[in-house]
């Protein structure tokens, strides 16, 4: 933790407050970002520094370029995404590293692999992680989905991936 002196939390609300609390225990300076709608939120008042995001309330927390710009202006050593928003954005994770900061989250390659459901399932299976019964790979038609569902037993859950016509099926 000696290397990380200042941390930007690229999130809001309770998750940001928890990260701020932990960072303070580790003597790490915190920078919160916020939109106009969040000006009175705890993550804004609890951080050592809070910076208003440009853009709208709807787009502010997902504007990776603006967040990295703020991080540079605040001399941030690391960015933590919390969950949601940019936590599953491999390009943003790479951009943080490219900007010379530490990304506190999964490696971009892991984000990409686990963002594709059938690839994530195969990786989990190869790692020995218990998984619910399901198809090997994708089903490619309605009839294939029905056939695979009948083999697995009902109820089933269809999980969309890559395209709206490709699904993995998991028995519940």
From TrEMBL:
This is Putative urea carboxylase. SUPFAM superfamilies: Glutathione synthetase ATP-binding domain-like, PreATP-grasp domain. Residues 3-172 form the Biotin carboxylation domain. The lineage of its organism: Eukaryota, Fungi, Dikarya, Ascomycota, Pezizomycotina. Coiled coil: none annotated. It comes from the Eukaryota. GO terms for molecular function: ATP binding; ligase activity. Keywords: ATP-binding, Biotin, Ligase, Nucleotide-binding. PROSITE patterns: BC.
């Amino acid at each position: 933790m000696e290397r990380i002196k200042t941390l930007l939390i690229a999130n809001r609300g309770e998750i940001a407050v928890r990260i701020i609390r932990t960072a303070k225990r580790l003597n790490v300076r915190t920078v919160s970002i916020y939109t106009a709608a969040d000006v009175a939120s705890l993550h804004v008042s609890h951080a050592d520094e809070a910076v208003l995001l440009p853009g709208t309330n709807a787009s502010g927390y997902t504007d990776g370029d603006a967040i990295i710009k703020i991080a540079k202006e605040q001399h941030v050593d690391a960015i933590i995404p919390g969950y949601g928003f940019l936590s599953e954005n491999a390009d943003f994770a790479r951009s943080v590293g490219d900007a010379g900061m530490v990304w506190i989250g999964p490696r971009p390659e892991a984000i990409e692999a686990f963002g594709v459901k059938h690839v994530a399932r195969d990786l989990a299976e190869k790692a020995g992680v218990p998984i619910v019964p399901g198809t090997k790979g994708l089903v490619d038609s309605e009839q294939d989905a029905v056939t695979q569902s009948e083999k697995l037993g009902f109820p089933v859950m269809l999980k969309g991936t890559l395209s709206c016509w490709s699904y993995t099926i998991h028995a519940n």
